[in-house]
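Objective 1.3, modelling of assemblies. Example input:
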Amino acid sequence: MDLKQFLLQLRLDPSALWLIIALPLLGAFLCGVFGRMLGRANVYLVACAAVAGSFLLSLSAFLSVSPLEAAQAVTMENAFSSGTIRYAFGYDFGTWFSAGTFRVNFGLMVDHLSGTLLLVITGVGFLIHLYSTSYMSHDDGYWRYFAYLNLFVAAMLTLVLADNLVLLFVGWEGVGMASYLLIGFWYSDTAKAWAGRKAFVTNRIGDFAFLIATFLIVLLVSAFNTQATAANFSMVGGNPEAAQVRYREGLQMKGPVAFQGLETMANALHVTPEKAQGGVNLQTPISEGPLEGRTFGGVLTVALLLFLLGAAGKSAQFPLYVWLPDAMAGPTPVSALIHAATMVTAGVYLFSRMSYLLVLSPTAMVTVAIIGTITSLLAALIAFAQDDIKKVLAYSTVSQLGIMFMGVGMGIFWAAVLHLVTHAFFKACLFLGAGSVMHGNADETDIKKLGGVRHEMKQTWFTFLVATLAITGIVPLSGFFSKDAIYHGIHHNHLHGYEWASSVIYYMGLLIAASTAFYMSRVYLLTFEGKRSPEAKIPHAHESDWRMTTPLWVLAILSVVALFQALPLMPGRGGVMQPVMENFLGPVFSSAERIAARGGEVKLDHSVPSIIDYLKAWLVALAGGAAAGFMYLKFFPSRAGQPAPAFARSVRRFTQNKFYVDEAYEFLVIRPVKNVSAILYKLVDTLLIDTVAVRGTAWVTARLGSALRYVQTGDAQAYAAVMALALLGGAVYALILVMK
Amino acid sequence: MSFFDTHLLNLVVYLPLLFAALVWMLPGAERGQIRTITFIGMMVDAVFGVWAYLRFDPSGAEFQLEYRTRWLEQLGVSYHIGADGLAISLLLLTVFLGPLVVMASQTYITERVKEFHLALLVLQTVMLGALVSLDVLLFYIFWEAMLIPMYLLVGVWGAEDRQMAAVKFFLYTLAGSLLMLVAIVAIYFISSTPGNRSFDYATIFNNLSTAHSQIAACTGTGGDCSTLPGMAGILYRWGPWLFAAFAIAFAIKVPMWPVHTWLPDAHVQAPVAGSMILAGVMLKMGTFGFWRFAIPFFPSAAHQARPLLATLAVIGIVYGALMCLAQRDIKKLIAYSSVSHLGYCMLGILALTAEGATGSAYQMLNHGVSTGALFLLFGFLYERRHTRLMSDYGGIAKVVPVYTASFLIITFSSVAVPGTNGFVGEFLVLLGTFKSSLGLGFGAFATLGVILGAAYMLWMVQKVFFGPLTHRENQGLTDLNLREFATVAPFLVLVLVMGLMPQPFLDRINPSTERFLQRAELGIPGSQVRPSDVQISVMGLPPAGLAAAPNAPTPGPLADRR
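Predicted structure (tokens):
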């Protein structure tokens, strides 16, 4: 049996999908509960084996949805329409909870998008587990560390496998929780523990928006279900009446938040009233319920903007990016896995998953793109002046995620996903490389105090160089192609009403590319080139062992070979060759394409970048790198000893302090909330309610009682006097009445 | 027709009392025996309670496991008990907490051990009794009787300032209850004619429902409703007042903002058992009262007061959470978090949507589990260090790892991380609020609690467990021992089970929710709900001189449709 035959036979039964999540979960349980009993070597074995097993299962799931021969393509029944979903399979494990008309199922689904992410998560995840076995070899909390890491992998897999929004949210918050635990892993350091809390609470702000967005979607679906006519379902395929019945059955079976249902709804929603023939379109007002009077399109846009805030929390976008740089308090492999390769890309995944909703709202799309641009530029500028190697990489991650958001926002989904994948490779490689440098230099993270490491750490140096070239976008590494695919798409896609965005964001993108090249070259040059800094903690660095270098090599190789996915090798529409990744993700984004083509709100372009485009991007990257080279190899060394001009110092201080964004939040949000709660507690709770109202009542009662005490003295003479006086008074009154 | 068909609920309710008699006969010096007998009693009760829960048929009649017999006939009272979906769920929670409370107090209580356990057992009986009473006067008796053992628990075995807290708790609650008593008597006279008067829940409700549909029809047309004849006219005029009397009594118990200030004091001073029962069961009596009595009895008044009550609930959520951020005392923080969580329960009920009400009922269970566990865990820490201030701890995670892990899991449940029980309840409540006719603002503000909840809980965890060890005294803290871990473990298991498999619990709540909603809908002006749709059918009184016999539950109009 040759390899091809073997791979063809490797097929995961859909009902076994839960195993992909269960394995790391079991690993987390074993390591967490029995870790200390098992001992170090067994914990390593359990944790790595769990992720490796998950990787093999993921591989088999991936091969099932993307078979080597077209005839073997799996299809999956669509619960919401009579059509089938090609190149996907899934399994519904029954109800999670239901009340009223709402229902959520434990439904898992693998298609080309989640299949790709499965491989990235478990593949890179395994490499990082392997790396960690060496990196954490001196830490006593190893069992805790691996339990958390396995827990994270399980949560992340839940996130990408979920076939509905609420189950996705389980993974979404689950990764946040694991991230909280891992950032604060060295909890006896107060700053590190606070960083964990900051991450969790900032993420919660995003989750707040995510929850509200989910509720709006539920309301929207129910409004659509009541108001939609057969005219809507004529676009879903088959007999319209039957399609509507089928949709309602789907709602009953899988609830309103299932992605399949949302896709069917997006397909059935008309964009403009002209073509709607009385069916629901984006301008139709909702007729009843709490959203009465608001239009479908308006509610959808609001929901997507709230999802954007949610994604900004998880994917560290403006204005919620502030937690990510602090998250570097965690162990370096954690930064590589969670804060570079997987968790922070969840926002990109979310929008790619719901691409069909996104293309219905150009306003939401352009906002996503603008937020991405602002974040990316801001982070790149902050990265210029950071001296901590992990902080630079953290800001670079924020910046790269911004680029992915730009891509998603401008509708070039496949390229955003491709950049997600390539970024996972080269950024994980960079972080692990940084970890290796720290490991070999007594945990020194200040790049000013390193230098010249290339001679002592040859393997780390070479892989770091490859990854740096990839992220700066030098031909022929994968980063170049994926970033350029995004930029090309941004330039050529057009959003109705926001045509200016295409070029503005494109040129901003070029600026970001140049900045990326600059700060990455700076990090590389200061760390690996030149002479060893006299301030270094130890005189000689040492190379790390094989468990740390193997992942570096694998990731470096992957960041080179991943480039093939951007090459136009596959036959596309109209005989034009299509990039491999675009072709591969075609089925996932087909609804988005169809809706865009139908409505004219968004114009999606499918051309392939020309040599000129490539050349432009290449020159930009080269210019950034060359500038850094000039500054740090020639300019600064030649001026050593001379004081820098005042303006340069103040700019540097301003940048180094991250534009004082954290301070602004502290001043504008955190302190007010704290002060308001303290004031409310002192004023309203303690004083007004408890003292004035509650104790006041008691006080008045007591005073009243003691005042009335004097009435009951038991003195017969006094009683008689009162009686006599009362009698007299009565008599006088009677007399007056008579006299009148 | 076995003994258990008729007497299962009686058994669950009075078993603790039986064991209380046993304990009473033991000499006070036999502490070990007293503890063991109490524990066995609670365990046996829990077994029967779970059995009752399993026997409850979600698709069956509204009130199940009924028992009714003649009692104080001259007043129109009968001894009538039975459980619907909500009551049986809260009953399960109560019997679940029972044995754990005893285990938690094993070393905590060293003074007056016999009296303490007597109080626990009596409290268990009256709480269960209040949940299952189907006679309003019987309910009131149990409701008031709850105060006494709780007052003793706080006042005798509490911390340094216990007298003040106990008196405050007692007077606060009593003030509300007396108002309710007035309303109960008034409703007794209004709901029927002389000679037919009855305190029976179903009779009162059925009699009132006709009048309510008349009011709804009248307010729907916008006419002058004060001239309505008979009961409808009286209800139209006095309904809001009577509702207010009920609502104040229950709102104090919940506690809703701004009548919540007894709670932090009572919690802070109460011993671990008192806090657990208070948070676990007693607060739910307030929400249960709204669900069972206040809203179904006065739907139109409830409908008028809904925006106000919902506003108070939302204020409670946000305000309670903000209060937590201003605390230095751990127990006070947990108490204020209860105010916030109970705000969700109230909001869910007031949303009057299936999702909201079901979520609210589930949130009641969740809060009992997670906040009960928080008080339990803190109680262990308090036993070791005798301080409640956050600043006296810090960095103890290294010293007590198992304790820390348990506390973290419960914390995640309390901040409603998906996968734990808290998420399902909170999600359903918020979804229900968004779906309701209250308006989106209520939902949006209530959702703020999600952020604040994480902020204050993790802040507390941070202060207590993380960072460097700041106090030398904490160096010698011992981790959970076997007994303590065995007490915590059921909570940890339940957090995950209720988070991942909520449907068996929700299945029992859902039918109750739908009946509740329909009854509440009767109050909406122009409501189309007919009185015959919402009638409650219960077993009749057994013929005089005969022992009570359960008739097969007569399927009512609601039961027919499912």
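The longest strand of chain A covers residues 89-99.
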